[in-house]
Amino acid sequence: MANRVLVLNGPNLNLLGTREPQTYGFETLKDIQTMCAATAEMLGLDLDFRQSNHEGELVTWIQEARGMADAILINPAAYSHTSVAIHDALRAADLPVAEVHLSNIHQREAFRHHSYVSSVAYGVICGFGSLGYKLALEALAQKLK
Ligand code: DQA
Q1: So what's the pLDDT on residue 77?
Q2: Claim: this prediction has a pTM higher than 0.90
Q3: 1 CA → ligand 1 middle, Å
Q4: Superfamily of domain 3-71+89-144
Q5: Measured from the CA of 24, which atom of ligand 1 is nearest?
Q6: What is the pLDDT of residue 107?
Q7: 102 C-alpha to center of ligand 1: Å?
Q8: 30 CB contacts (<8 Å, ≥6 apart)?
Q9: pLDDT digits (tens, 9 = 90+) for 47-98
C-alpha cells in the first residue's frame, strides 16, 4: 500500500497569491496543492492536503494522523512561532514530520526565528518558496522507504 502523507497548512496560507506577494510569491495554495499532488503521484505517495486558520483544528488533525498517515508535512505558518499545542500534538503523533516555510524565516523579524515545531521535526526547509513542499515530500518518501 502507498504511504500516506498528511499535508497541513496553517493560518493565512489560504490567502496565498494575494498575500504579501513580495514575500510569498504569486502562487495560490491551490497551485501548491496541484504541484504536491503531481509530486506525490511521481513518488507513489497518497496525499491528504488541508488548510486551517484554527489552532485547535490543526491539533485535532495531527491527533487523528496517528494510525491514518505515515508522515506529516506541515507549514504551521504563524503558529510555528507560538504554538506549544501543535508541538505537543506532533510529538504525540510520533510520525516523521517535515516543517516547511515558503519564506526564509531566519532572514525576517526576530519573532519568526524560533519555531516550536522544529525540535519535533525530522527536517526543516525554508526559503525556497513552493519548491520546499516538493523537496519535503521527496525527503519523506526516502525516509518511509
Ligand atoms: C510562513 C512563515 C511564518 O512566519 C508566517 O507567519 C507565515 C508563513 C512561510 O511559509 O514562510 O504565515 O510559515
Answers
A1: 98
A2: yes
A3: 33
A4: Dehydroquinase, class II (3.40.50.9100)
A5: 11
A6: 97
A7: 7
A8: none
A9: 999 999 999 999 999 999 999 999 999 999 999 999 999 999 999 999 999 9
Contact 105, 84 (CB under 8 A): no
The total number of residues shown for the chain amounts to: 145
- Phi, then psi, of 112 in degrees rounded to 5: -95, -5
Q: What is the 3-state secondary structure (H, E, C) of the chain?
A: CCEEEEEEECCCHHHCCCCCHHHHCCCCHHHHHHHHHHHHHHHCEEEEEEECCCHHHHHHHHHHHECCECEEEEECHHHHHCCHHHHHHHHHHCCCEEEEECCCHHHCCHHHCCCCCHHHCCEEEECCCCHHHHHHHHHHHHHHC
Residue written as grid cell 509530486: 39
Give the pLDDT of residue 124: 98
Q: Dihedral sign for Cα 78, 81, 82, 86, please.
A: positive
CB 63 within 8 A of CB 101: no
112 is in an annotated binding site: yes
Give per-residue pLDDT as tens, 2-32: 999 999 999 999 999 999 999 999 999 999 9
Band of residue 1 on the pLDDT scale cut at 50, 70, 90: confident
